[in-house]
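step: validate -> pass
step: tokenize input -> pass
step: predict -> running
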Amino acid sequence: TCTQGEQVWSKYGHTAIRILDTVEHTDIVFNYGIFDLMADDFYIKFLRGETYYRLGVSNYAQFEYFYGSIGRTIYWQELNLSTAYLQRIYSALLVNYQPENRRYLYNFVFDNCATRPYHLIKNALEDTIISSYKGYEGTTFRTAITHYTGTHSWVDFGINLVFGRDADAPMTNEQRLFLPEELMNYIAHATLSDGTALVKNQHIGT
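step: predict -> pass
step: emit ->
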């Protein structure tokens, strides 16, 4: 989980999945946040939910250097899962990274860099993820988004464009997980249905 940036597309923070294999000496990041900033009408399409993003892969050192160079802190959570479950997650990521699957229609609330990793992990576990963290659950979309963006009129315009009247509807348990920080805290307090804690350790940086 990366902390907030200054640009509109980075104000909510960022989520990616790191695969660290000390046996095979693999340390890579699957990142659902790759986009073309130079695409025509990027900002308008971003606010409308009409921007195409793709899944990219890089080594962790590059990922860490990039976010560190622009002053954004990285937190990473080591998942407390069996080798079989971890292999399922990795296999699902490889399927997502196939050329025909990499590109997706990004929506900054309903389908983004946080919702994709969450649902991929949840589906791979074939289990219920239960968390005691309440956070923004029950809060309106508008309240949560304004907390991160501030009260900029053009952001409010984007919120109204995407949601309409639903901007002031309360978010459900999973809907609020489009916010990377919210997802991080949710996972930090999560267990599987058998009571196993989902996170073994949490670290800052390397």
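step: describe -> The longest helix spans residues 83-96.
step: cleanup -> pass
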